[in-house]
Amino acid sequence: MKRGASSGWRGLPPLLFALPLLFLLLFYLYPLAAIIGLSFELGGGAGRLFSPAIWRVIRFTFAQALLSTLLTLLAGLPGAFIVARYDFPGKSLFLALTTLPFVLPTVVVAAAFSTLLARFDLRYTLTAILLAHLFYNEALVIRMVGSFWRTLDPRLEEAARLLGASPWRAFREVTLPLLMPAIESAALLVFIFCFTSFGVILILGGPRFATLEVEIYRQAIAFADFPSAALLSLLQIGFTLAATLLYTRLEARHARPLRLRRRERERKRPTGAVRWAVYGYLLATLGYLVMPPATLVARSFGEGLGFYRALFYNPRRSIFYVPPIEAMRNSLLFAAATMGTALVLGLLTALLLHRRRGGEWLDALFMLPLGTSAVTLGFGYLVAWGKPCCDLRGTALLIIAAHTLVALPLVVRAILPALRAIRPALREAAALLGATPLRRFLSIDLPLTWRALAVGALFAFTVSMGEFGATSLLARPERPTLPIAIYRFLAKPGASNYGQAMAMSTLLMGLSLLAFLLIERLHPPEGWLA
Amino acid sequence: MRRWMLLMMLIGLVLTACAPHRAAPATPTAPSPTVLRVMTHDSFSVSEEVIARFEREHNVKVQFLQAGDAGTMLSQAILSRDNPQADVLFGVDNTFLGRALEADLFIPYHPAALDRIPAELQLDPEDRVVPVDYGDVCLNYDKRYFAEHDLPLPEDLADLTRPIYRGLLVVENPATSSPGLAFLIATVGRFGEEGYLAFWEQLAANDVRVVDGWETAYYGEFSGGAYSEGERPLVVSYATSPAAEVYFSEGALDEPPTGAIVAPQTCFRQIEFAGILRGTKEEALARAFIDFLLDEPFQRDIPLQMWVYPAREGTPLPQLFIDFALQAEEPITVPAEQIDARRETWIRDWTEAVLH
Asked: DSSP string covering A274-286, please?
């Protein structure tokens, strides 16, 4: 492990690196401490918690998360390979479409999904949960691993082949070990997402299944048993910490500096027998990932453009009516702000983690927000940032902070493997040639991690577009996002409400799709790369 | 060049996103009105002109805070008790009332209009909260299914365990849903604390389906609504849902495709209350707002905004309600103290009996 031995950015002002820590302190640790302290202060209820039922919940939470992660890796890795190695028509559209599930609120997905599940009699089963988790997370694997794979130097594998290794052996002994850091990064994220799964479990799994997250919600809302909810939240955070530490161990063993390539190697169209396998996989994946959203779109046109037109009227003159354009604008603004802050903080965090020896604990600290219950954190914000001196409740700042907190780990996980794979010799050479730290960063690290940064940006944007749980606690009703507007329609009976919810979902998807394609097109300007 | 512009656009977006909350305090209207903050749940709604009238009369800006479903709102109010987010809270119902009162969230106030509100809706003798509206949680049925299969409607909750209704009913989980909790309490009221679990075990044996919340039950499992996708013709919903089906069909339906069963002892009446939050700095205005909630303009506005009934006696109802909305003939009542003392136990026992 030579990481950290040669940081290229020693000259950057150290205060800059304090920013992510400050952010974490203000918008994660402080609210968390505030809510947990208050919960125990309020008292009552605790003690009944550690019944056999709770062990059942813990066991199930682990089991479903492990199974979901395995399934997602199995299904996603071939996709990562294809995306890295081959060109095919409509590739960027394919990538954008596979990312769509990320923005869709669970209630909406569940509606489309359950029709599909009912056909195979799978509703309210463990299989339904696993399939939904696959649906939501497959893009993470395809994108994170795929973008890393693309930058690997193919000559290593080619050399192995020249020396007589079979393609399988060359993959297993050369490429796979090199890929491990990216695979582990993606696997950790998928695991934590599934570990803290809420909507999927409630709606598609049905009430027979409960994860810790569901149990926390039950304790905090149905029973108002705040100490139990706080204890369970701590337990959930503890498990996340353990999982992340395990990951950092593995990752440290596997990460190594590589000869990364900025100019990607020529990718070719698949030919021969491979072609059928590749197109078969692409069609199957697309079919699986796109069918539920397509059902929603079809339903939104159930009365021609009727539901869309209805979005623009407020016949009951309700004060909570939201013009769709405004909801789109709110969503876009929050998402863009989240992307901006998450990118800046994420890049700084990744540099900080990269250059520090023994950064595992720090690394784990930055992952914890993902493993923290949304209800707990949402309430934490309201308690911590509701003091008379500094009442931020209802401001856009809290929403952006909450979204950034979830987006940050994604950005860090996307960047870190790429950053660690940069050979220190490059930076050393640049330093010898007299390049300033900023210059070294701009001309070495930034170009070589650009693709990873773009993936991080994309997920930060997506997370914010689709976020519902924390937003619903923090947003003012007059400034709702698209997911909140969707829920408002779904909460009432009647054809036009349902139709308008579907129309609003379609707008959410369309807008996200446009944004994905746009982000995909961002590249570093040539001038930076001298 | 174009890429730079894209980048600049994104940065611009980020900046504009940060701007609004800094610019917000500058309200243009002349002698800057006071702000009255009202915390409600997601189902709260009111017409613009009704609120505008209150704002004009009292030179106040009413700022609503929708704090999730009723349970989430209450937990939120309890947790932020020391620094309340609002001056008035609207929407705590009789299934959660005890918890709110126990947490000492409210300052008592006795509005004059309470005389016009039926005594059976007034559950807090100390006037910490006042009833504003009520609605009945009742079984809804798919008219077409019952006609096609020539099935009689269930007239008693006990009927639901009969084999002819096997696999027909979908209910909401009382731990995660407000109508689900209301229905569980209804069964306790109907069969007593000794009998309700046995009823539920029979119901489970009769293939009842339990889902997380009303949306999944009504849209995903129920077969009756215009856009419902499910196959089960019986669902726990509200007595006004059929009227909402007509209203939200936008003229496509003259008559609801669903019906509500309002037979005696089958429904639970949810009463919604409002109260002045302790710690308010605008107590006089908060009182005026409570008066306003019980005053006729707001009361008349309730049915079509929230699909429940106004608490004030003699409030005229919209024609749609007269034609299609029903009221429980003799709702099941369970004393508020009993609900409050036993709510958690019922949910836990129910979970063990029905889900495991």
From this structure: HHHHHHHHHHHHH
